[in-house]
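Schema walk-through. Below, the input block comes first and the output block second. Nothing else is stored per chain. Lengths vary across the set, and this one has 132 residues.
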Amino acid sequence: MSKKIWNDYKSDLVSGTTCLSQGVCFGDIYNDGDYKIACGDLSGKLKILKQECLINESKLNYCPVSVIVFKGYDKQLKSIYQYLAVAGLSYIYIYKNMKGILKLIIPNIEINSLELKIWDDLKLGNIDHRQA
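--- output ---
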């Protein structure tokens, strides 16, 4: 019988975690062959959980909006390594073994004027979501 860790985590009120769906990912965060849940909490914390247990909690200086685990090549170790990327504010922070190694700046782009008008009309109630 398989255990449903996702359902247990979702209903676990003890962890006190509040996050968006894009703020949760599942991966080998410590590169030890053991998969864990990484959660970007809206309170400004990065939480690592294994089943129902909180393994690590790091305070962030920003509110994370997205979290993902990805594979990359480590030149020093000459092997494939798993990294954790956390997006927040205008940056993407890259972690290796839960230690920050890189901070990427997301460039500002100009919003299309037609798209901005549609969003403004939606906000004011001039159009509904079907018209948008």
